[in-house]
Amino acid sequence: MILKELNINNFRNYPNQKLILHKGINFFIGDNAQGKTNILESIYVLAFTKSYRTTNDSNLIKKSSDFAKINALINLNDSELELDIVLSKAGKKAKYNQIELERLSEYIGKLNVVMFAPEDLDLVKGNPRNRRQFLDLEIGQISSEYLYNLKQYRNILKQRNQLLKSLQNKKERDYMLLDVLTDQLVDYQKPIIEKRTHFIKEISDLASQHYKKISSTTNNLTITYTPSLVTNLRDKYEEKYRYDILKGTTTSGIHRDDISFELDGFDVKSHSSQGEQRTLILAVKLALVDFIYQHKNTYPVLLLDDVLSELDETRQNNLINYLKNATQTLITTTNISEINLEEIETYKLFKINQGSIEESDTYE
Amino acid sequence: MKYPQAIEQLIEALRKYPGVGKKTSERYALYTVNRLDNAAIDEIVEAYLKIKEDIFQCPVCGNITDIDPCPICRDKTRDQSTIIVVEEARDIIPMEKTNNYKGLYHVLNGTISPSDGVGPDDINLKQLLKRLKNNTIKEVVLATNLNNEGETTARYIKKLLEETDILITRIAHGIPAGGNIEYADEITITKALEGRRKI
């Protein structure tokens, strides 16, 4: 999958911008706060219909404009497809080859992207919620059934929690409805646990290989899925009926799952440096590129926001050398003085200065 | 500016309808004042009064009716051994249109949904159990909607009837008649495969 052309209107600081992208590496170079990240964000929004930086779409619309529009021409297996997203105060519209799609869920997955953003360090440092969001976003890209089950699970969870609260004040408790809702919760949960287990198993090995390559070390990276419940779900819920009623909430289930990262057996959160954590996240992202290729038979577009800044020169060049033969990539950076451009060949440079973008063949 | 009190009152009253907001109810109220003559207003008032006087829920099945019991419950030529359980009275009409079902109905007038404050005691369930006690019913078809609340309600009823000899069935879901598999979404196809049967 190659993003050939990107057109953005009234998005963040860009009134009107057209970019012809290279199928190799696209460097976006500029000082801080010039609008580099906004370009990557627009592609992210085009893929997922929402941003990772804000939950309020009106933040994405340029000031004093009524709407923002993102359009792209994409090459997929020798055919061309066009995607449009229009964001306005009245909501958002998604078009696939000029045809408006009724449900956004039909649209997600048409453009596959993998993004590295500075916020992604939360995957290691943040709370389990960050890691579950990661699971849901990435598995959702390859399985709409997963997203469906997840939505239904949350719906049943809400019903069950409400029931647990109402049972707190009752002397004679009728467990029959709790039985029913627990059954439903278990039914939706099983395929989700299965998908999460497979996903982590797949990316753990891939990420470990990428980690060794980028860091030039032999450190073993392992990612482990730690589900809240593994087997005999039905019985485990029943054992906790009283406890759940006391708490007024469902205290176990996939909404309490987590994943952990270890380097040579040591927990990354407490034992690894900032640079190691960054490399680790990058390795996970590169694993996702492989993962999507294995499931979709096409490479996703890789978006790397400010990834170079905390990597040493060796790691920077290891990364770029890998990327040049891997997949279409967009990288933002303040400078590329430590990169050996002669060795790459397949790249394009864009200089960004206060929202104006200039293509350039050389970097000085 | 404020409308005279009678008009304000009508505006408020009309807002009780679903889909009618402040603007729409204001438009209807002013239309009533400006465009409807006394005869038209009398006609509406009379129709409302007739609803209030004549229409009630059938004490047997919960269907809306103007006779007790409702035409379906009193029709002894219908098959007295099957009951289709539906959420709302309006669900009966499409079932009757098929002309293929000659049994009885039971209207729950709602679904179990704790997050909306609706529990098993708040829907027409006790009456269903009462109807099943006289041993003439052989099959109960659970035709609540195929969403989570409908499914919760269906499973709850199934549990209630577990100890009886009554056959409990659930309506199928999957690809609609005349539907192309090509155009069905993945979830529908998954459900259709789960519900496949031997031919």
Q: Descriptors for this entry?
A:
heterodimer, A: 364 residues, alpha/beta, six-stranded antiparallel sheet, six-stranded mixed sheet, 11 helices, globular, B: 199 residues, Helicase, Ruva Protein, domain 3, Dna Topoisomerase Vi A Subunit, Chain: A, domain 2, 2 domains, two-stranded antiparallel sheet, 8 helices
In short:
Chain A is of the alpha/beta class and 364 residues long.
Summarize the helices and strands and which ones pair or pack.
The complex is a heterodimer of chains A (364) and B (199).
Chain A: E1 2-11, E2 14-20, E3 25-29, H1 36-48, E4 67-76, E5 79-88, E6 91-96, E7 99-100, H2 104-107, E8 113-116, H3 122-125, H4 128-142, H5 144-167, H6 176-215, E9 221-226, H7 233-239, H8 241-247, E10 258-263, E11 266-267, H9 268-271, H10 274-296, E12 301-305, H11 313-323, E13 329-333, E14 347-353, E15 356-360
Parallel strand pairs in A: 3-13, 3-14, 8-12, 12-13
Antiparallel strand pairs in A: 1-2, 1-4, 4-5, 5-6, 6-7, 9-10, 10-11, 14-15
Chain B: H1 5-14, H2 22-35, H3 38-54, E1 56-57, E2 64-65, H4 71-74, E3 82-86, H5 92-97, E4 104-107, H6 126-132, E5 139-142, H7 148-160, E6 167-170, H8 186-194
Parallel strand pairs in B: 3-4, 3-5, 5-6
Antiparallel strand pairs in B: 1-2
Helix pairs in contact in B: 1-2
Written account of the structure:
The complex is a heterodimer of chains A (364) and B (199). With 364 residues, chain A is of the alpha/beta class. Helices cover 42% and strands 25% of the residues of chain A. Chain A has a six-stranded antiparallel sheet with strand order 2-1-4-5-6-7, covered by helices on one side. In chain A, a hairpin with a 2-residue loop joins strand 4 and strand 5. In chain A, helix 4 packs across helix 5, helix 6 crosses helix 7 and helix 6 packs across helix 10. Chain B has 199 residues and is α/β, with parallel strands linked by helices. Chain B has two domains: 50 residues, RecR Domain 1 (Helicase, Ruva Protein, domain 3), CATH 1.10.8.420; 142 residues, Dna Topoisomerase Vi A Subunit, Chain: A, domain 2 (3-Layer(aba) Sandwich), CATH 3.40.1360. Chain B has eight helices and six strands; from the N terminus they run αααββαβαβαβαβα. In chain B, the strands form two sheets. Chain B has a four-stranded parallel sheet, with helices on one face. In chain B, helix 1 crosses helix 2. The relative contact order of chain B is 0.08. The model of chain B has no long low-confidence stretch (mean pLDDT 93). At the A-B interface, helix 5 and helix 6 of A face helix 7 and helix 8 of B.
